[in-house]
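Example (one chain per record):
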Amino acid sequence: MNEKHLKKVSPQHSKNIVSSDICCPDCSATSEYLYFNDGKKRKQIKCKVCSALFQLNPRNHIKTKFYCPHCSHPLFLWKQRKDVFIYKCDHDKCSLLLTNKARLNPAEKILAKFKSSQFKLRYQFREYLFTKEQLAHSAPTANAASIFNIRHSLHTLCLILTFHISLGISARKTAYILRNVFSIHASYQTVLNYSISASHLCHKFNFTNKGAVDSTQAGDETYIKINGRHNFVFFFLSAVKRSITAYHIDSSRDTLPATIAMTEATRTAKLKQPFTFITDGNPAYAAGIHFLNQSNPDNLIEHHKVIGLQNLDQESETYRAFKQLIERLNRTYKFHVKQANGFKSTLGAIALTTLFVTHYNFLRPHSALRYSVPIPLKELTSIPTIQGKWAKLLNMSLALA
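Predicted structure:
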């Protein structure tokens, strides 16, 4: 009888060497015959002798904090993210798992054998690492009183907001126009400083006059650069009124900033108003909606995802039009911030975004609304010029300060 000699494992990288104190739990093979079977994760080990699979850190059910409500089986920690821990039930006889498997059609059952990750069949529980008190929307930190200390008149300030914000002209070109067209001597830094001072008032004005919101809203995040690094602006847009309901800036696309934006998008809603959010496939939105639904189980938010650029599933085809609305808003926003060529500070990014939302909601005519503004104000209807409307809007904001 010819016996085949089994060679020892010889990994090419030192990080892939299994520790010498680990042995196979089935055949007691030493670490020389063990290797990592899950790539860079290095959590699953396979034995070359008996082909057994086992975990480097086995699931500890004794110290678990949560149990499955369907089968009372302990949950194990499945994923760790910055803002949320996800626990999962691994009991193969869980009633929820058996029910979900029975609902699969024959083609899905075959797919589930090879790609089980495509289906959410097991019970999952999310433990959030933040509270409702931490859901603070980004806001300018400038002092509202600083607007009284400007050297120029209110008319000059409104001209700056007209050119720099409404028309999307850079700060340097705005200063050039003021100097060579209106004989007003103001540097580009003055333009930026005045914009920051006005943004503090406009932020309160945006929140106070947002009014009722639509039940169907589209959300997305677009990136900007602050000090050469990517930051993200989370927008939510009413599908009918076309008004911006939330505009939060954060350095990440995680669950917390997405939840902050969705909380603000529903802040002025009517009692028990139903909501449907349409977003892309970013898992932060699904996790954030799960957090909001946990806080308000009597009025659950419905969520639909539009994946990719092509309609490869029925849900994407049905809600593609709403996703296109928010993408069009992103392009409009990018037109207004492109002239900044990035930001040197987070305050500058928040200030320009705040003033853009003020312009978009209260001053900018929209073709889909028969060239009316998303949030019309009777105080502004009789004023013919943009700078005049900015002046009236700032006076109304001062009353709120």
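Caption: The chain has a mean pLDDT of 89.
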